[in-house]
Design brief:
Elements: E1 23-24, H1 35-50, H2 57-74, E2 81-84, H3 87-97, E3 105-109, H4 114-127, E4 130-134, H5 143-149, E5 154-160, H6 172-182, E6 185-189, E7 208-212, E8 224-228, H7 230-233, H8 276-292, H9 294-314, E9 319-320, E10 332-336, H10 340-349, E11 352-353, E12 355-357, E13 360-364, H11 371-386
Parallel strand pairs: 1-11, 3-4, 3-5, 5-6, 6-7
Antiparallel strand pairs: 2-8, 7-8, 9-10, 10-13, 12-13
Length: 388
């Protein structure tokens, strides 16, 4: 498969050599690299080892390509996208930078991933804010409980698009409507939905959306991006700044100018210098998503999950522990049984890579999986249950 060949579901597995001997269902933890990512990183390493020219421009050119691509994937404009090191980068930008005053309240779910909770608590301690928890219902985010949790002091909501342990996808449109009505800043941790569940951050009224790219986006660890809406960009007082946030017009031969304006875009919040190896890997990974399309990836993943669900429903030994509601399901699926730990060990022994989370087996189905992967999982589950 050449670099110029259009990527389709018929040939995408060619990019992922692990599919020949590993059944990988763990993108919700860390995604596997494609050969395209490997080649891009290795080529940049070779160039740096040779050091035959000034290649510092690669960082800026590649970064600009990434901002355009990520903007297209989330329904934003180029100016809304900045590049960061992880999901927490955008969460910190929100919690420490948005115009909050002492006594204001941050809301998080009582089943939220720790990244938002610890960021909110740190910002609260530093800025005199309070942190309150939204009560979950059946271990899922509940819209009515969110409404009940809002007080006159509530100014910021930090919430995950998809819950990390059971794959529950939150109705961001409904949440965003409430936030707008109540004048609450709307901040979304998107990492468990990015790349596999379609999203339009502008239509949803999200103020800040942030996602690492090392999971479902199949890029190197230590990289990500964030979206900042036009409505809040100029209201943010960032907790950190860098010289790359200033608009040098790519003129770096005369650096003794300390009056350059900051970018009139989310780029002003980026930190320098850039992790260029990550950038080239991110770009190679992102091109897979532009070829396949996130809506088609979602359709592909959900169809494979349905195949697994049909088996589980036929075997009383197992039970589904994630929602199958079309409005709330995602590419992250969970199930359980009486002997979860031994089952997990057997799956790993069979080279089926997945994890246990909160009393369930978590199956992260992605674009490189196919029916043979699901059938291998089903075969192992069937053999295991017969021995119980």
């Amino acid at each position: 498969m050449t670099d110029t060949k259009m990527i389709t579901f018929a040939n995408v597995r060619e990019l992922f050599p692990h599919t020949s001997n590993i059944t990988y269902f763990n993108a919700a933890a860390v995604g596997p690299f494609s050969t395209a990512v490997q080649a891009a990183v290795e080529e940049h390493l070779r160039m740096r080892v040779k050091s035959e020219k000034d290649d510092s421009h690669v960082a800026f050119g590649t970064g600009d390509e990434l901002r355009h691509i990520y903007a297209g994937l989330v329904g934003a404009e180029h100016r809304h996208i900045g590049l960061g090191a992880n999901t927490s980068f955008g969460l910190n930008l929100a919690a420490f930078g948005l115009p909050l005053k002492a006594g204001d309240e941050i809301l998080v779910s009582d089943i939220e991933f720790p990244a938002a909770v610890y960021t909110a608590k740190a910002a609260a301690a530093a800025r005199g804010l309070t942190v309150s928890f939204i009560k979950s219902v059946d271990r899922c985010f509940d819209l009515d409980e969110f409404r009940k949790a809002i007080t006159p002091k509530t100014r910021l909501l930090m919430i995950s698009y998809v819950q990390f342990f059971n794959g529950y996808k939150i109705d961001l449109a409904a949440v965003g409507k409430i936030c707008k009505e109540k004048n609450i800043f709307f901040v979304v941790d998107g990492i468990q939905g990015m790349g596999v569940e379609p999203i339009n951050v502008h239509k949803l009224g999200i103020d800040i959306f942030t996602s690492g790219c090392q999971k479902w986006m199949l890029a190197p660890q230590g990289c990500g991006f964030f979206y900042v809406s036009d409505e809040v960009r100029d209201r943010i007082t960032p907790p950190f700044m860098s010289w790359v946030g200033a608009d040098w017009k790519m003129q770096y031969t005369d650096m003794f100018h300390y009056d350059k304006p900051y970018f009139e875009s989310a780029r002003r919040f980026e930190m320098g210098f850039y992790a260029v190896l990550n950038f080239v890997g991110m770009l190679a990974a992102a091109l897979v998503f532009t070829d396949l399309g996130i809506s088609e990836i979602q359709r592909h993943n959900h169809a494979l999950i349905d195949r697994l669900v049909n088996y589980i429903r036929s075997n009383p030994y197992y039970r589904v522990t994630s929602t199958l509601d079309p409005n709330h399901r995602s590419s992250l699926f969970t199930f359980s049984c009486a002997d979860l730990e031994p089952l997990h060990k057997e799956l790993l022994h069979r080279r089926i890579i997945l994890v246990r989370r909160e009393g369930s087996i978590r199956v992260s189905v992605h674009l490189y999986n196919d029916e043979t992967d699901i059938d291998k999982l089903i075969e192992t589950m069937a053999e295991f249950s017969r021995g119980r």
